[in-house]
Structure formats: C-alpha cells, structure tokens
Design a protein that fits this description.
Length: about 170
C-alpha cells in the first residue's frame, strides 16, 4: 500500500505568518505522513500538526528554542515503505550540497533526505543516489515567487509523484 507524504519546512509561526494556510491543513489531513524539516518557531504549531497528522516525523531548526529542541531531534530517520528517509534542517550552501550529503549520509544510510532552512525548493539526486528534497516554506517565500510545500508518494520502495505545490497565504 502506498504512503502519501506531505513535506513542509520553515513555517516560522507566528513570526512570518499568524497561522498555517488552509491548503497546508488540508494537505496534513489527507497525508499518511507529515515530514517537517524545522524552523517551527513556536511549539503550538508542533502540537497542532502532531495532533492532526496520521504519522509525523520532524526536526528542530536554527530558529527553534529550547522547548522545541527538547522535543525534536536535530536529525530524524525513518523507514517508509522500504525507503530510508532522513530529515535535517540545514545542509549548508547549495554549491557542493550533493557531495556533502553523500559524505554525511551516504554508505547506504539514506535513500531520501528532506531538508529546509533556505526556503528555496530543491530536488536533486547526489552522485551516491540520495534524493535531496527541500519543500521551501508555506509561509515565507523569501526570494521565491510563491510559498510552497511538497507532496510525494512512497510505494513499495519507490519514491514517485514528487510535486512542488504552490501555497497561497
């Protein structure tokens, strides 16, 4: 049976927005698993997402305080339908990212790494075969034309239907 994923990051509530957009809540409700790559800013958002998500995996980011750091790891891992996922907030500069991630998470440790921090969507594969995904931010577009989140499906050890979804605020 396939697992529908929602990937989000950098929600920055209530600093960048007062609430998550309705489209994000609908996506949370329809996903089999929500993955959040950090920079929540407030614990209330974590509580709300954990309360609504069928399954949840998340990490803290550089803007998250002591309470979130106590509740969430810096790096999280989970096997989802035969694929090894990792989640981390920051991966450093775009230049050289694939090589750094192979060095950090290669050697058959991960198949997919979800990250955030830049608010810039990213989808690439390292020379070692790790799929790198950054969903952008659903609340703070920074230098991007729109806010974003990502959806994907894991089916029998295969990641498919990866889609960058624009989010209206």
């Amino acid at each position: 049976m396939a697992t529908r994923l929602l990937l989000i990051s950098d929600t920055h509530l209530p600093a960048r927005a007062r609430r998550l957009p309705d489209a994000v809540w609908r996506a949370i409700d329809s996903a089999d698993m929500v993955i959040h790559a950090g920079d929540w800013v407030d614990a209330a958002t974590l509580d709300a997402i954990e309360g609504r998500a069928a399954r949840f995996l998340g990490v803290y980011g550089n803007n998250d305080g002591a309470e979130l750091r106590m509740r969430l790891p810096e790096v999280a891992r989970s096997e989802i339908d035969g694929l090894r996922f990792g989640v981390v907030h920051e991966t450093g500069a775009a230049t050289g990212r694939e090589g750094r991630m192979d060095a950090a998470y290669g050697d058959d440790e991960l198949d997919v790494l979800v990250f955030g921090h830049s608010h810039i969507p990213w989808d690439s594969t390292t020379p070692g075969g790790i799929r790198l995904l950054n969903p952008g931010s659903p609340t703070d577009r920074r230098r991007q034309p729109v806010c974003t989140m990502m959806t994907a499906v894991v089916d029998a050890g295969t990641l498919r239907d990866v889609e960058l979804v624009p989010v209206e605020r």
